[in-house]
Design a protein that fits this description.
mainly alpha
């Protein structure tokens, strides 16, 4: 792990928050309130992102509840349609949010690059292509050292494999072993139940994957700051030295 990378990551964080008090002790404990404010700003920049997310959650809940209590097919289809609309809406609104005000964001970004490059030159004496590339080589190692990726999907899959799925299978086995139920049970019902169970699993995984991609930069701030620094240094290198 490179202390220089940590200090530079702190410097860029402070620079972005208009606080130029550079942390030189190598402490990378981020300002959590600032991160949550950034997340709130991201959501409030396009309220439809939040609306589509809520729609997907409610629709998934309708589908799961309908599957358990055997609601009508039309209600379950409504849940599936609402879920798909929510996911597609999240993707489309996210992309629109990225490209919105492109020219203004580009101008502001180039200004930020110039200003931070001045900090690198005058405060850290990083003023050459060789020094930039040396820092870049250390960013990946430092990123892995200061934090782990947020693994919401992986944790859910592991929980499903080790806890949820076995419990469900044991429960089904107990129910099927009851004589009165065993006699009236049809293989079509078993097939439909397993299909619905698998569908619910896939729907939850997809939704969690999208949620993880949105909140990971804000939750895992230590790792994110080093990765952000790497992106900024890459752009400075391209703009100034290549």
């Amino acid at each position: 792990m490179s202390n220089t990378v940590i200090i530079l990551a702190n410097a860029y964080e402070e620079f972005c928050n208009d606080r130029r008090n550079i942390n030189t002790n190598g402490n990378l404990n981020g300002n959590t309130s600032v991160r949550w404010q950034e997340l709130r700003n991201f959501i409030s920049s396009d309220i439809w992102i939040l609306v589509m997310f809520i729609l997907a959650i409610i629709s998934l809940g309708i589908f799961i509840t309908g599957s358990i209590f055997k609601w009508s097919i039309s209600v379950m289809l409504l849940g599936i349609i609402g879920y798909i609309i929510g996911l597609v809406g999240l993707v489309l609104r996210g992309e629109k949010n990225e490209v919105k005000n492109y020219r203004g964001r580009r101008t502001e970004y180039y200004k930020k690059l110039r200003e931070f490059n001045n900090i690198l030159k005058h405060e850290f004496e990083i003023d050459s292509k060789e020094k930039i590339e040396y820092i870049l080589k250390n960013c990946d190692e430092t990123s892995n050292s200061v934090g782990q990726d947020l693994k919401i999907v992986g944790q859910f899959v592991v929980s499903w494999q080790k806890i949820i799925y076995p419990v469900i299978m044991v429960g089904i086995g107990i129910i099927v072993s009851i004589d009165t139920i065993k006699k009236s049970l049809k293989w079509e019902d078993v097939t439909m139940g397993l299909t619905v169970l698998f569908s619910i699993f896939i729907m939850i995984v997809i939704l969690l994957k999208m949620v993880q991609s949105v909140i990971e930069p804000f939750i895992n701030s230590n790792k994110n700051r080093v990765n952000t620094l790497k992106c900024i240094l890459n752009d400075i290198n391209l703009k100034e030295y290549v």
